Amino acid sequence: MTDLLDLSPFDPAKERRIVVIADWLPPDFGAVGQYMQMRAQALAELGHVVTLVGLTSGAATKVHREIGMGSLTEIRLSTRPVPRHSLLGRMLWTIFTNLRLLIAAFGPLRAAHGILFTGSPPFLIHLLAPLKPLWRGRLVYRITDFHPECLIAARDRPSRPLNLLLGLTNFWRRRVDAFEVLGEDQRRRLEATGIAAERIALVRDGSPVGFACDDPVEPLPPDLAGKCVLLYSGNYGVAHEVDTVVRGYELHHREGSGRVGLWLSATGAGADEIAGRLRSAGLPFHRSAPVPLEKLAGVLRAPAAHLVTLRDSFVGYVMPSKIYACLESRKPIIFVGSADSDVHLLAKSDPAGYWRLECGDFRGFAAALEDLADRVAHAV
Q: Regarding beta strands 70-78 and 61-67, do their DSSP bridges make them parallel or antiparallel, or are they unpaired?
């Protein structure tokens, strides 16, 4: 994977002061915050004076430290969790949180030579882009998830208010100085909105953890003892395929060998649905919370294989960043999703082993579980 130190779109000689805005910073769980903290540290090592503004479930803090040839100031705003079961609550949380981030970062933003912000929290562009005349620095939008496209993709029917919001969002996108995308699929989506190709750079995340040979491997769940364990780690939300996994897993246990056990080290609505459906069906599985970053490498090396999923309607709007660490773990991967996704682009040549099933192909998923169990049995 590319070294984060090679990813800077900013020139330390001309753009010394940088502001990075993200959502949940470690130790809180959130992939975007993890990567943006790593990015801010890498920019400081290159000689930038970096201010990172993000969220925490703990006490608000402001910490300054010298790093490499530069420095990093972390400003953490104490924030309640997103009320995920209420659309109105999520909207109000997003508006209030974005305003707080803007206010906390306002002084550094005015002095910055460069501003790097992400798609999390969503819709921050609606504050930063209109105020662009106030910022002296370049505005760089690292599109992690596309909003409101994700809201539109999650709906069963069109929404006129969301379509109007999409038009306004694209208006502000065309006024951003530069973009970073996580994959070629995202590049295609962004170019389709009218963004010129020369303003878009592909900057992949890479793995947030290293895999040293002598690092301890975390133990497998005792209730999956004797099983070939398939792990899903991280967020399992509305963008991730559920039905294919549940139906294929049930078929594997009802009509197949039942040798594979599913471990959900996950949060999110998708994880809740899978757990509920498997529990109702009386099928074996284990559910646990995502682990702290310092334990992640050990967990990812523990199972026989990793599960990655993505619904077709979210291809190019969401890039499951977990794929990088899964690849680095040198474990086989089962992907339920489209060949148009960059997950397939990255994993199709994985020497550890790779299966891809279309969303809806639950029989293919069951067959992949049998193949995985055979492979593990033959390796013993």
A: antiparallel
**Whole-angstrom Cα distance, residue 108 to residue 175?**
21
Quick check: 20 and 118 in contact, CB under 8 A?
A: no
What is the distance between the alpha carbons of residues 289 and 292, in angstroms, rounded to a whole number?
9
Calpha distance 157→52 (Å, rounded): 38
Round to the nearest angstrom and report the end-to-end CA distance of the chain: 30
Q: How far does Cα 280 stand from its chain's mean position?
A: 29
- CB burial string 256-292: b at 16+ within 10 A, e below: bebbbbbbbbbbbbbbbbbbebbeeeebebbbeebbe
CATH class of 4-202: alpha beta
**pLDDT grade, residue 4 (50/70/90)?**
very low
| Segment 155-197, tens digit of pLDDT | 889 899 999 999 999 999 999 999 999 999 999 999 999 999 9
Q: Is the pLDDT of residue 8 over 70?
A: no
Other CB atoms within 10 Å distance of the CB of residue 188 = 13
Assign domain 222-375 to a CATH class: alpha beta
Residues of the chain with CATH 3.40.50.2000: 4-202, 222-375
CA–CA gap between residue 20 and residue 307 (Å, rounded): 31
pLDDT for 5: 38
Give per-residue pLDDT as tens, 301-315: 999 999 999 999 999
DSSP secondary structure of 79-115: -PPP-TT-HHHHHHHHHHHHHHHHHHHHHHHHH-SEE
Name the residue type at position 270: G
Instruction: Assess whether pLDDT exceeds 80 at residue 7.
Output: no
Q: Are 4 and 38 in contact (CB under 8 A)?
A: yes
Preceding omega of 332 cis (within 30 degrees of 0) = no
Helices (H), the chain: 31-45, 87-111, 125-128, 149-153, 160-173, 184-192, 243-254, 269-281, 293-300, 322-328, 342-347, 362-379
